[in-house]
Amino acid sequence: METKQALVTGATSGIGLEISKNLAERGFSLVLTARKREPLEALSKTLRETYGVRVEYCKGDLEDPKTPQVLYDFCQQRGFTITLLVNNAGYSLATPFHETPMDAEERFLRVLSLAVIALTKLFLKDMIKAKQGNIMMISSVAAFAPPSSIQTLYGPVKTFVNRFSEGLNLNYNSMGIKSTAVCPGYTITNFHTASGVQEQMDRVPAFMKKSASRVAKEAVAATLQGKKVCVPTKTFKLIVFLLKVLPHSLFPLFSKRLAPGRYNHE
Ligand SMILES: NC(=O)c1ccc[n+]([C@@H]2O[C@H](COP(=O)([O-])OP(=O)(O)OC[C@H]3O[C@@H](n4cnc5c(N)ncnc54)[C@H](OP(=O)(O)O)[C@@H]3O)[C@@H](O)[C@H]2O)c1
Q: From the CA of 47, how far away is ligand 1's center (Å)?
């Protein structure tokens, strides 16, 4: 049996794409998933040809409650025993909370939390049997930040992801399973365009915007070392430290410059 096999959600763009490349370079066999077929097919081909690893893909929308089981069955049928589950797919909602239809909130919560729970539940059982496994949860610096004036539910959901990851570590470390909550800050990907907040991202100072490849490199290294939390880049390590120790009443002093539009009603 091959020992290094990973499933990556949201593999076709940004952080997930770079994680997939990094894992292929390390010799992982991969199952890639996202909603659009063409980018999945193209990436699978590139990774196979570049790194000589086994790469298959399964198209799926994580807004659909059936998708996690479809992905698990796909892995079973193709003979993959997943040793690393990467829960990465995500987006945000930019419309004000009171204007966002409830069904849009439900679909958002399904992708960022219920699908993460469902996939973890499905793949964890095989990891328990194998007495080893890693789970990477792509969370966010938003998990440590004060509530944002845009994206009302994004921070709370990422806080949940961190706490869920902690709970997995508490209950399953003794069975050889480790979960890593990766908390990136601003990363240059399609996320801000897809989420309708590109205008805010454009106003963020350049030194705060990190490349997806750098974030992925630190995320994969920390996960394979079994670290519980990973905040990629020194800039965001410092910011998370300050978010933990400074009184929240001081945040407006620097948030207007560092995170324009997010914490101020302008
Ligand atoms: N970029 C940042 O500044 C930043 C900072 C902190 C945390 N994060 C987190 O990082 C993760 C990855 O985001 P990213 O920045 O790399 O964004 P991205 O470039 O927009 O990539 C998102 C990926 O998720 C897939 N996806 C989106 N909705 C999906 C759905 N309903 N079902 C299945 N797949 C779906 C997309 O492919 P398809 O469109 O084909 O489905 C794409 O592959 C997210 O969890 C995000 O919250 C991002």
A: 19
* CA atoms of 135 and 145, how far apart (whole Å): 23
- Pocket of ligand 1 contains residue 255 by CB under 6 Å: no
Which stretches of 80-132 are assigned E, i.e. beta strand?
A: 84-87
Buried/exposed 115-149: b ≥16 CB within 10 Å, e otherwise:
bbebbbebbbebbeebeebbbbbbbbbbbbbeebe
pLDDT digits (tens, 9 = 90+) for 5-21: 999 999 999 999 999 99
> Which residues participate in catalysis according to the annotation?
154
Express each pLDDT in 171-219 by its tens digit: 999 999 999 999 999 999 999 999 888 888 898 999 999 999 999 999 9
- H-helix or E-strand spanning residue 33: strand 29-33
Distance CA 114, CA 100 (A): 19
Is 81 within 8 Å of 130 (Cβ atoms)? Answer: yes
Tell me how far the alpha carbon of residue 17 lies from the centroid of ligand 1, in angstroms.
10
Going from the Cα of 61 to the center of ligand 1, the distance in angstroms, rounded, reads 12
According to the model, what pLDDT value does residue 261 have? 66
220 lines ligand 1 (CB under 6 A): no
Contact between 92 and 191 (Cβ < 8 Å): yes
Q: Is the minimum distance from the CB of 190 to ligand 1 under 6 angstroms?
A: yes
Return the CATH number of 5-258, one of 3.30.1340.30, 3.90.1150.10, 3.40.50.720, 3.20.20.190: 3.40.50.720
